[in-house]
């Protein structure tokens, strides 16, 4: 990987082979699979940069041969790689073109399942006698087949004689398990007496979710707005800033010099000057943390559908998730502060804000490399309620606020327990 830093999007391990595999997000037109040997140095034993052309979303080792690695990606491919081969052009021994892969894995020594981000589900077989690349069982949209809203995952039985499929519905607060068994011919099937049968569960069965057309574009942009305070409030604060600047210029550059020229008493001249200075300082301080908008950069897999974004937001999202917070400068000009989610803490915890800000971050590292002639990085932020002024993904910000508070509460609890032990 060199000096290139990437977000990890998948992970798998094989104890018998002492191997750990990790897949990365697409960065600088490259998505990699790295394999480490836990007994050796920190350098990867294998690195594949051309197996996939987009985010590597799923990895899994073969149940009986740890030299075989399954990988899935949003480029649509599920690949079976033989890690004994050193030539990357030959490492892929079989590929299945399924669609943007959300889940994939081995169900037996030869059978593979794949589920896409639009919930298309199919089984494939890597046996020599089976037609290469073709699905042996294609259930289509599993939401229609099982009356659910999302597929959580699929796990093979210990004896590899079947699998358990987990599906759920947010609208009905329901989660069900289905049994996928082998037919009389030894192949996994969902028809006849071996059909998918749900484990009994309480509550009404959820209505089928609407299908997503195949090949649909991503539902969300790479930079997605999740908070907006409203155009009216933004214009008012910007107008307030400009008004105080006008007052400062009027009293400081016109009225005060005229008082000095007229030899007015010092206290009167000082009072006139403060008439323009105090409003400027007060408004500049109180509106400095005022947040106008917040944007998030969710990973590609979270932008596929509302369900995928909801799972990402409630994950909880990684602390390294990038966000942009927009505020207003002294003259009312938009100012964007780039950071990651893990930088933000409640302002009260950081000892900042004085009741004005409700979020804060440590800006010492950013200011250390900042040119002397630029204003310091914004350290305090104030968000107004939920801020869902016409923002369809405003609920994401609510989830992030809860995660910030939960993470800080957990840190305080751990700190308190540490002091008790001492």
Automatic annotation (TrEMBL):
Transmembrane feature ranges: 236-260, 266-285
Residues annotated as signal peptide: none
Keywords from the UniProt entry: Membrane, Repeat, Transmembrane, Transmembrane helix, WD repeat
Compositional bias per record (Pro residues), positions renumbered to this chain: 201-210
InterPro entries: WD40/YVTN_repeat-like_dom_sf, WD40_repeat_dom_sf, WD40_rpt, WDR89
Keyword check for Membrane: yes
Keyword set includes Endoplasmic reticulum: no
Entries under PANTHER family matching the protein: WD REPEAT-CONTAINING PROTEIN 89
Name of the molecule in the record: WD40 repeat-like protein
Organism: Phyllachora maydis
């Amino acid at each position: 990987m060199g000096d290139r830093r990437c977000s990890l999007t998948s992970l798998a391990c094989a104890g018998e082979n002492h191997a750990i595999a990790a897949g990365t997000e697409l960065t600088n037109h490259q998505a990699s699979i790295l394999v480490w040997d836990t007994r050796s140095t920190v350098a990867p034993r294998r690195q594949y940069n051309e197996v996939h052309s987009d985010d590597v979303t799923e990895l899994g080792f073969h149940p009986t041969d740890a030299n075989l690695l399954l990988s899935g990606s949003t480029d649509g491919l599920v690949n079976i790689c033989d890690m004994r081969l050193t030539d990357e052009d030959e490492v892929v021994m079989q590929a299945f073109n399924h669609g943007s892969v959300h889940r994939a894995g081995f169900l037996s020594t030869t059978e593979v399942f794949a589920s896409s981000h639009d919930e298309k589900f199919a089984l494939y077989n890597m046996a020599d006698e089976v037609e290469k690349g073709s699905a042996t069982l294609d259930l289509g949209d599993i939401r229609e087949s099982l009356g659910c809203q999302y597929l959580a995952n699929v796990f093979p039985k210990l004896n590899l004689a079947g699998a358990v499929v987990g599906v759920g519905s947010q609208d009905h607060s329901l989660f069900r398990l289905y049994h996928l068994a082998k037919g009389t011919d030894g192949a996994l099937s969902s028809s006849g007496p071996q059909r998918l049968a749900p484990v009994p569960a309480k509550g009404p069965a959820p209505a089928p979710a609407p299908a997503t057309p195949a090949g649909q574009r991503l539902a969300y942009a790479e930079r997605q707005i999740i908070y907006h305070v409203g155009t009216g409030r933004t214009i008012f604060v910007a107008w307030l800033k400009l008004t105080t600047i006008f007052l400062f210029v009027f009293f400081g550059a016109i009225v005060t010099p005229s008082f000095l020229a007229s030899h007015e008493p010092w206290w009167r001249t000082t009072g006139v000057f403060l008439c323009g200075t105090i409003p400027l300082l007060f408004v500049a301080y109180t509106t400095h943390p005022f947040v106008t908008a917040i944007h998030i950069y969710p990973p590609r897999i979270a932008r596929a559908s509302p369900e995928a974004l909801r799972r990402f937001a409630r994950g909880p999202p990684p602390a390294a998730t990038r966000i942009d917070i927009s505020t207003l400068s002294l003259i009312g000009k938009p100012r964007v502060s780039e950071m990651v989610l893990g930088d933000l803490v409640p302002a009260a915890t950081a000892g900042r804000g004085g009741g004005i800000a409700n979020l804060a971050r440590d800006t010492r590292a950013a200011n250390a490399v900042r040119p002397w002639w630029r204003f310091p990085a914004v350290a305090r932020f104030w968000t107004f309620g939920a801020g869902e002024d016409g923002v369809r993904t405003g609920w994401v910000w609510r989830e992030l606020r809860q995660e910030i508070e939960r993470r800080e509460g957990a840190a305080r609890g751990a700190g308190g327990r540490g002091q008790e032990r001492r």
